[in-house]
Amino acid sequence: MIRLKDLDIQTCRNDLANLPDGKLLINTINAHSYNTAQKDDLLAEALSQGDVLIPDGYSVVWACRWLKAKSRPTERIAGGDLFDFEMQRLEDRSRDLMENSETRGGLKVMFMGSSDKVLSLIRKRAALDYPHLEVVTYSPPYKPEFSNEDNKAIVEAINQENPDLLWIGMTAPKQEKWAYAHWDELNIHCHVGTIGAVFDFYAGTVKRAPRWMQNHGLEWLHRLCSNPRRLWRRYVIGNVLFIWNILHE
Length: 249
Description:
- By secondary structure, the chain is of the alpha/beta class.
- The chain has one domain (4-248).
- 50% of the residues lie in helices and 12% in strands.
- The chain has a 6-stranded parallel β-sheet with strand order 2-1-6-5-3-4, sandwiched between helices.
- Strand 5, helix 7 (174-181) and strand 6 form a beta-alpha-beta unit.
- Helix 1 packs across helix 11, helix 2 packs across helix 7 (174-181) and helix 5 packs across helix 8.
- It is globular.
- The protein starts with 23 loop residues before the first strand and ends with a helix.
- 36% of the residues are buried.
- The mean pLDDT is 93.
């Protein structure tokens, strides 16, 4: 289990600009992942031992303040915020590199996870939004658990591409646990973000909540209304459970 009051959490979006270069595992925490980590030891370890943890939920921001926690975020940093920042920073670096040298190819961003359909849409949009980046993708088998052969193939694919930025999108908590469990096998030098839902948002296969709902902590309600059959337990029961767990802390 984890205790929210003891975690090192980024406090604001400006913190993202101060992250060091090199191999960093960046995870997000929200009410759902916090609840899940109370009974999932590997997820708890992944969230607490990863390099960077960002507050992807107003519930986490509010709870940290109420608990007088070690870290007290002043704002929510959504997975989409991390995505936008990291992609634009890499685009800027790649553009400068190409303009100031004879290098033709741009820096490389890799998307690992999701379906071939979603990844195809991501490649098409990213080619327009970030024209100086090389975009590569890998769609792992769609199954609850990967075999040893599956894991080996994924690790080899990532290492072979050796990206300058890696996104992992396999839904929580699978993505966080996979990245943490195989971290030492990844011979890469870049930031790695676990942002499953952002794959669908960026591809356009799932519509994100309007900005006003995001700004008022209601994005969960939009997602619940969009897919109540799949998400009612996560948000209706999960929100109550989150309050209970925070009170227990």
